[in-house]
Design a protein that fits this description.
mainly alpha; 3 domains; 9 helices
């Protein structure tokens, strides 16, 4: 079997065989054997592994979209373009900028949201300035509160992990998380 076609389990089994060939008395070898055995067991018992290796249902019809007249040309075009796009993406400034932005959002999400909110508020305030005398007090009050919230958000240093562990984060997760699927029993 070619190395590119091997599954994770095959790699782990090959590693276990290599470890088995080394001297038996070594403590490091015993740790390696138990670790590879544990990883193999965890992999085989995982839901994803069972789902991917499950026998297909005989009542399910599988259609290879790559062989159809409508979708096939797009799939072939994508197959040809993906290596070039991937090579261009790996060396691009956009990839590095995206990675830095994602890291920044993980580190200080409220500050990032506040900066974006301030940019929107600035545009709205500039739009509001010519007619500020004709605007109701409620509109001006809402703008003032929004500015205070946005500026206050710049002082919050919580990480995304800390936010997700907070009471509000747990409540939000509970509200947005899909329900467990019903059992077929």
């Amino acid at each position: 079997m070619d190395a590119e076609e091997r599954s994770i389990t095959a790699y782990l089994e090959a590693a276990a065989e290599e470890v088995a060939r080394l001297p038996d008395g070594s403590h490091t070898i015993q740790i390696g054997q138990s670790l590879t055995g544990w990883i193999t067991d965890v992999t085989r018992e995982s839901s994803l592994y069972r789902w991917l290796t499950k026998e297909p249902d005989p009542e399910v019809m599988v259609i290879d979209l790559a062989e159809t007249y409508t979708v096939g040309p797009f799939i072939r075009l994508l197959d040809r373009l993906i290596p070039y796009v991937e090579r261009a993406w790996n060396g691009s400034v956009l990839k590095r900028t995206t990675a830095r932005t994602a890291e920044l959002v993980r580190d200080v999400p409220i500050k990032v949201a506040s900066v974006l909110f301030i940019a929107v508020l600035l545009a709205q305030t500039i739009q509001l300035l010519p007619s500020i005398q004709n605007e109701p007090t409620t509109t001006l009050g809402i703008h003032a509160v929004a500015w205070l919230l946005a500026l206050g958000g710049l002082r919050v240093d919580w990480t995304l992990e800390e936010l997700s562990q907070s009471r509000v984060g747990r409540l939000t997760r509970a509200l947005l998380e899909p329900p467990e699927p019903p059992d077929d029993d």
